[in-house]
Design a protein that fits this description.
The chain is mainly beta. The protein has 3 domains: 53 residues, no CATH class; 124 residues, SH3 type barrels (Roll); 116 residues, Roll (SH3 type barrels). Helices cover 13% and strands 43% of the residues. The strands form 5 sheets. It has a 6-stranded antiparallel sheet, covered by helices on one side. It starts with a helix and ends with a strand. The N terminus is likely disordered.
């Protein structure tokens, strides 16, 4: 007995070291286990029988899979193996092998967690999307989808995200908000800078506005109110009004810091990219896109945007 008491006193004297180990996430648990021992280390999930149990699934279950951060697809379980599921995507014949930790069972209720300001996974006519709950009215909820659309859905059409998915969704909404603000400001910035009285001539290289943005083209036939322009890669011929035509740069004006500009794409078949002007560089300009990436471009590749006349 004396030896046992001395051993306990020695342990107390040395102190108890708590090692906080973040165990492998599941949709139901994201638990920091505290181990009391001088030298214990984390073990991977499934390495012993005491690991957190994974939810059970069966063939035929309707599920939602988080394929990538904040990106989801629905489907049905084809088979179950240790820690993995074979899931057939809804509306397709292809199947994917996924980790159980990335899967939600459809029908799990949101319950009291469906509160204004929280994020969730919403069933929409086009599939499952991340959503933010704006207002709760009984069993009906007004939500904003990750693609920016507003929707009104029932509580049964929502899934409660795990802590990891919740973080993914919040980051995705933050990124989408910055992107929306960027392009809204660019839209307000205006149109390519054009000198008064500009009218392109035949075979002139121009920037022309189309449904998907501003594209490089070559004037095939010029008229007073517009031109027929050929576009890469197939020389598609389209009529473009004069108000939606601009000469290719270099432009006669230089944007100010913070102003927006169009940047020449790598391929003429792609639209000119909208970027924010940061300032001059050595015989060039410094710009940044919606992702914040900074680029150096030549004057011939930058067209300032100015308020329309």
């Amino acid at each position: 007995m004396r030896h046992r008491i001395l051993g306990q006193q020695a342990l107390a004297t040395q102190g108890v070291r708590l090692v906080s180990c973040l165990c492998r996430r599941t949709r139901w648990h994201n638990v920091a286990w505290l181990f009391v021992a001088p030298t214990w280390a984390c073990r991977s999930a499934g390495s012993d029988a005491s690991a957190v149990a994974q939810p059970s699934f069966a063939r035929g279950d309707e599920v939602v899979v988080e394929a990538r951060a904040a990106e989801f697809f629905g489907g049905r379980v084809l088979s179950v193996s240790k820690g993995q599921l074979r899931v057939e995507r809804a509306g397709r014949t292809e199947a994917s092998t996924v980790s159980v930790g990335d899967v939600y069972r459809v029908g799990t209720p949101m319950g009291a967690s469906a509160k204004a300001g929280s994020v969730a996974i919403c069933r929409t006519p086009g599939g499952w999307l991340g959503c933010k709950i704006e207002q709760v009215e009984g069993d009906a909820l007004n939500v904003t989808l990750l693609d920016g659309a507003a929707a009104r859905i029932g509580r049964q059409a929502l899934l409660l995200p795990s802590p990891v998915t919740e973080l993914n969704l919040k980051r995705a909404f933050s990124k989408a908000s910055r992107s929306n603000e960027f392009f809204a400001a660019a839209e307000r910035a205006g149109v390519p800078a054009v000198t008064a009285g500009y009218r392109p001539s035949g075979h002139a290289h121009v920037i022309a506005h189309r449904a998907a943005g501003w594209f490089s083209g070559v004037v095939q036939e010029a008229r007073d109110d517009g031109s027929y322009v050929a576009f890469a890669p197939d020389n598609v011929r389209e009529w473009v009004p004069l108000t939606e035509l601009a000469p290719e740069p270099p432009a006669s004006v230089v944007p100010g810091r913070g102003d927006f500009a169009l940047i020449r794409p790598a391929s003429p078949a792609e639209p000119w990219r909208v970027m924010r002007f940061l300032g001059p560089a050595e015989r060039a300009f410094k710009v940044a896109g919606v992702d914040g990436e900074v680029r150096i471009v030549a004057a011939r590749d930058l067209m300032p945007l100015v308020p329309p006349p």
